[in-house]
């Protein structure tokens, strides 16, 4: 093994990224469906000879780890029968596919001098892959056999020659054969472009140097990722959310164990798999969660297999996070997967909150927007009289939560809606965001609420379909928001003066500016009202408890001193180790909607000031859904 200098590594990495982008551009130029050419729902992934992620290109980062799963499934199926010039395809999540059946994974091995040195995977969303409804998203499906044409790894080309039979199978089972076939051939074209370019790079530097360079970069990424994980406070961090199906709730709990340079995400306790189409798989959750986790911990590192090496997911088989046939999986990448990803990342945020020296602590925020999308697919008769379809993607990524350094972002842009009843939570006392809602305004003046998972909704002449997207939660107690920022929101018509007073306690004076004295009075009264309406603490702490030791944060607004958790603003003790820090908080419990399933918001208050420390939303009757237990907290009370 020879050492590879850093300049060679960086030059190679940039050359491979350029190859990926060129292959992705070739796909976009030759595809014909708007979901590829306009919505950019495609990717190019380059992997090493063993199917490990090297680089990804294109718009969909979630595809990159799923591409690795697809290639490794292909290698397990075909073994030594894989030859130069072969091209494979798979789309079934139950058997080596991608994120869901519409995301087909076209794969080509790269051989140089008889050695398999790399793989190329091109993936894109196909407008239709068969099944009971156009577009293949079928909320009414109760088993995977109803949803789509499902392919395990099979050959499209054998040693450069087209396997015509599998193309016939595609044409015979989908509604838009000409369009989908052209997009499929675009994926093949992208594979060929990348294969030729990678072979040229390998020929220029030699097989051994190429392979060693890729492995060295992977090792460096892993080492740095482990170092950054090692800066998190060891311990257990727990978060729970629920995935919705009309009035049903499916539990998605996660307990993160931070142990040295490893992260273990345990989803034990997740609901059993269901007959709804959002059952998922561990590799899909990992694909999505680590992509989001990298934005917190590794945004400046090469996004390769080394990022994944220190991370383990434990997903019990037969549950919504690790389903088996015949579980339907047309939306295996959405409701459950995105929710599980978000719960896992929330656990990391909780760990960051208890890690004062971690550089990523500045990125603390409320829950991310990925688990609150609102996509809808429509079918109709095209201008030639044949079936056509389109996907409305404007609700694909909704407004994000605020953080300590910025306000939340507005709508950033499927009927497959999430967060109808359970909004995205904020952080550090920030309130939850708004929820998703679909409405049909009929021409006769009647307004109908539409379930967020539905099919067969008919829009007639003069009818209007309206969707209201969920939004992210806030950061910090709304009563602490800078009045000038609230006034800016009023000027932008994001808030009315009445809303500014009700939510933020900001009163507008006769001169059109915030009235500082009236605002201070209103905010003080609001805090007292909270305390008066709240239930008493579950386990109050004696205010005279002995408090000593260095002060370190447990969560924004909460500090640990010795074996006592304190509210930072008032200095009031909240709990003694190892109890949950909210045990000494008065709790304000409110129902968040006057219809639908009973969902409550629990606001945990500073008993001294009435400040809002944490607001969580759960189905009624569910226990507290989060925990912050770094080792220094759980061990602090042992000598008491």
Describe this structure in words.
It is a single chain. This protein is an alpha+beta fold. It is 29% helix and 23% strand. It has a 7-stranded antiparallel beta sheet, with helices on both faces. Strands 11-10-9-8-25 form a 5-stranded mixed beta sheet. The longest helix has 29 residues, at 177-205. The chain is globular.
Number of domains: 3
Output the structural class: alpha+beta
| Separate helix tally | 13
Helix content: 25-40%
As laid out across the biggest beta sheet, the strand order is 2-1-5-4-3-6-7
Give the overall pLDDT as a whole number: 91
- Major sheet characteristics: 7 strands, antiparallel
Q: What best-fitting shape do the alpha-carbon axes yield?
A: globular
Weakly predicted, low-confidence segments = none
Report strand %.
Answer: 15-25%
What is the count of β-strands?
Answer: 25
Question: What topology emerges from the helices and strands here?
Answer:
Elements: H1 6-30, H2 34-37, E1 42-48, E2 53-58, H3 63-78, E3 87-90, E4 103-112, E5 115-125, E6 154-158, E7 161-162, H4 164-173, H5 177-205, H6 207-229, E8 235-245, E9 248-259, E10 262-266, H7 282-297, H8 305-308, E11 311-314, H9 335-353, E12 374-381, E13 387-392, E14 416-417, E15 437-441, E16 447-450, E17 464-468, H10 483-491, H11 497-504, H12 516-533, E18 551-555, E19 558-561, E20 564-567, E21 573-576, E22 587-591, E23 599-605, E24 612-619, E25 626-630, H13 631-634
Parallel strand pairs: 10-11
Antiparallel strand pairs: 1-2, 1-5, 3-4, 3-6, 4-5, 6-7, 8-9, 8-25, 9-10, 12-13, 12-14, 15-16, 15-17, 18-19, 19-20, 20-21, 22-23, 23-24
Helix pairs in contact: 1-5, 1-6, 3-7, 4-5, 5-6, 7-9
